[in-house]
Amino acid sequence: MKLIVAVIRPEVLPAVLEALYRLDVQGLTVGRVQGHGGERERVETYRGTTVKMELAEKVRLEIGVSNHFVEPTVRAILASARTGEVGDGKVFVVPLEKVYRIRTGEEDRAAVTPVGVDPHSEPAGA
Ligand SMILES: Nc1ncnc2c1ncn2[C@@H]1O[C@H](COP(=O)(O)OP(=O)(O)OP(=O)(O)O)[C@@H](O)[C@H]1O
Ligand SMILES: [Mg+2]
Q1: What separation in Å is there between the alpha carbon of 22 and the centre of ligand 2?
Q2: How far is the CA of 81 from the centre of ligand 2 (A)?
Q3: Is the CB of 74 under 6 A from ligand 1?
Q4: pLDDT of residue 112
Q5: What pLDDT was estimated at residue 66?
Q6: 87 within ligand 1 shell (Cβ under 6 A)
Q7: What's the predicted TM-score (pTM) here?
Q8: What pLDDT score was predicted for residue 24?
Q9: Is the CB of 56 under 6 A from ligand 1?
Q10: Is 51's C-beta closer than 6 angstroms to any atom of ligand 1?
Q11: For position 124, what pLDDT does the model report?
Q12: Torsion 29-107-69-24 (CA) sign
């Protein structure tokens, strides 16, 4: 399992959500964040020049998926979030050790499998 963390432009969120829903990704977290993407602003101080980090409004998506869903999910985000301009953001794929569904106590694949896919109908280990 992986946790896909994507930092994207707020204005592409509807397109990214549509692409994910189309893919049948169910279960994600969205948050407004501020981020730094390398752009620097010089600020004068009384002791000389210092550098202040510029922060931009971004949206952070977190999606826990089983392994067979990693590639399609990442591809959907890349395709729907890209404008081609500097600042489009990043996608991080992070190892996900354990998932619990609180309501049922289900664990791991059963807890992250998208609706529409029977977790018992697929080969184990994905
Ligand atoms: N290395 C990183 N670690 C964590 N967050 C990052 C990292 N790089 C970028 N981000 C997040 O992604 C947002 C957008 O980054 P940005 O698109 O500017 O990345 P970039 O690598 O500079 O690409 P580009 O060249 O297209 O600007 C940042 O504001 C920040 O929230
Ligand atoms: Mg940048």
Answers
A1: 29
A2: 14
A3: no
A4: 86
A5: 92
A6: yes
A7: 0.86
A8: 86
A9: yes
A10: no
A11: 43
A12: negative
Q: Does ligand 1 come within 6 angstroms of the Cβ of 90?
A: yes
Mean pLDDT, the chain cut into blocks of 10 residues (126 residues total): 97 97 91 89 66 87 94 97 96 97 92 61 48
In whole angstroms, give the CA distance from residue 40 to residue 43.
10
Distance spanning both ends of the chain, measured CA to CA: 8
**Gap between the Cα atoms of 77 and 75, Å rounded:** 5
Q: Which pLDDT score, from 0 to 100, does residue 38 have?
A: 84
Q: Which structural domains are found in the chain, ordered by start?
A: 2-112 (3.30.70.120)
If you write DSSP's letter for every residue of 47-75 in order, what string do you get?
A: TEEEEEE--EEEEEEEEEE-GGGHHHHHH
What tokens does 101 get? 């569904």
| Segments in the chain forming alpha helices (H) | 13-22, 70-81, 109-112
Residue 95 to residues 26, 43, 66: CA-CA distances in angstroms?
19, 39, 10
Kindly give the distance from the C-alpha atom of residue 120 to the centroid of ligand 2, in angstroms, as a whole number. 42
